[in-house]
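Lab notebook, page 48
Experiment: co-folding of the full assembly
Goal: obtain a model of how the components sit together before planning crosslinking
Operator: M.T.
Materials (sequences as entered):
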Amino acid sequence: MTALLEVEDLRVHFGSGDAIVRAVDGVSLRIEAGETLGIVGESGSGKSVTALSLLRLVPTPPGRIAGGRIAFAGTDLLSLPIERMRAIRGREIAMIFQDPMTSLNPVLTVGRQISEVLELHLGLDSAAARRRTIELFEMVGIPAAATRVGDYPHHFSGGMRQRVMIAMAIACRPKLLVADEPTTALDVTIQAQILDLIRSLQHELGMALIVITHDLGVVAGMADRVAVMYAGRVVEEGPSDRIFGAPRMPYTIGLLQSVPRADARGQRRLTPIAGAPPEPYGETRSCRFAPRCTHAEAACRGTVPVLREVAAGHRAACLRDIEAPWVRPS
Amino acid sequence: MSAPPVLEVADLRVHFPVRRGLVFERIAGTVRAVDGVSFAINRGETLGLVGESGCGKTTVGRAIVGLTPPTSGEIRINGVAGGSRGRSVQFVFQDPYASLNPRMTIAQTIAEPVRLHGLRDSRSAVADRVHELLELVGLRRAHAERYPHELSGGQRQRVGIARALACEPELIVCDEPVSALDVSIQAQVINLLQDLQERLGLTYLFIAHGLGVIRQISTRVAVMYLGRIVEMADKADLYDAPRHPYTRALLSASPVPDPVVERRRKRIILRGDVPSAMSPPPGCHFHTRCPVAMPECAVGDATLLPAGAAGQVSACRRAFELDRILDGGTYATHRG
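Observation: model returned without errors.
Model output:
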């Protein structure tokens, strides 16, 4: 069976010559229809560039997709003429970003911006597009939908603006929604509202969802499967319960031991990861995490570990057999 | 006789006038950023001040350090009110990059307060102190001659902490000191702050929006909403037996990196946005979004009253009914 989206050995480079930054350095991902994949990583891990590549939105220059394959419902996106790609963006694959203010046009009413999508992609006339826009506003929980469609982006609070973005994203009932840090700019109670909305819309519309975030808690609450990225690569991938309950890559283990948990009883000292992430720069013949890894051996500095299966559906890019020092409380 | 608390804040109010009009400027209203806040911090303690954006937590911190003049109320350091805070209260900012002079080396940055306050006499004593401080915060001597842009975010925050320590302060106000840092670096800085507290007996006011970070570092926790403290308690009591519906909503909305916990727990999803601090709702400020509000919550004052554990206070009239009437918002049921 073919997956809804299959990314194979994706490489995205920025700059040229000796100063090539390998922002994405051989990423492979797979997502089935209706599934939720979480991509976690710290800044510079390549998670956002990976997301932009799916829609071929990497700013070129300085960036370019240097290799790999992205197949969406069997169609190779990277070789598609740009007009066909435009027809897929928004209609088949939609995206929401961290800061809705920068992705909305400040001089057009929000209603106009959504109607435009409907007219362009679905060929609705302007009256039908307006009716549908009001319906979409109601679906995403914007009160007084019929009047609010006439407002400009700056009239909305941060949480309401993200609802507008979500209304726009689901306007054409996409098969895949890519959400890049959708709640990072929001307060925690508003974040809960937005995540709740995304979950229920996904259920209602049967969309697949990719959630990209640095917040391990958000991923734990949303994702069926999780991919952990470090320095341009996926270093661990598997079912959410495995990644959080029985991680096998020292970086993932380190991340989980670094996060202070709001539900942690007693006084537990955090175990940080030493050092700082590398600049994804140049080619490497070693595990990129090795300089910070307490388990690294000579072999780790001579080979780039590939993802290997450590349990059913669970893969880790580590030469060693390291297990997390905790047992899940049941 | 016991010593007075390092910090006492009594009925602090900070109001900002909102001006309108270009030529005929007039005052169109008042933002009540801080609207009657009282608390104390004892020596060696960390009070965590938590709340969402606009709740006034940063303004409380700025008023204590002396960066924002209070409209009314009293701030006492070691029992002494008024006057210049001088070096006795220091601030650690969220963004160390914006708070460090880009043209000064790390050594100059740290030496400045040592010299300014006359804490060491000779040039060599100042230099020794700088190296001692660098070592305390886990930086190497080699960092002394570098400039801020040559350091990573985590290292810059260490410099910010060293500069605060250089003043030998009574109290350090940390305003979101780890929010701009990646998770793996955050933990390094949190551990550093805890180690320094243990070694030097420091007292912290730790301001943050993240409930995980606050739980990790605090001795006691105060929760703010729209300019007021709505609940304050020892850490364990606040997290395990919260007695205010807003605290419960915050806890239930705060994601935990564990899918098992995430699946099992009940969420309290609050309706709507936080009202404007220019026209906060009458009565209990939270009543417009409160899942268990009663008509009488819209009138009168929501006073902090004892609520359960020793030292726990809540501004909710239904504090003792919450276990029965509000499902969710505690972790107590699913973790042993």
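Interpretation: DSSP finds eleven helices and twelve strands in chain A.
Next step: discuss with group before ordering constructs.
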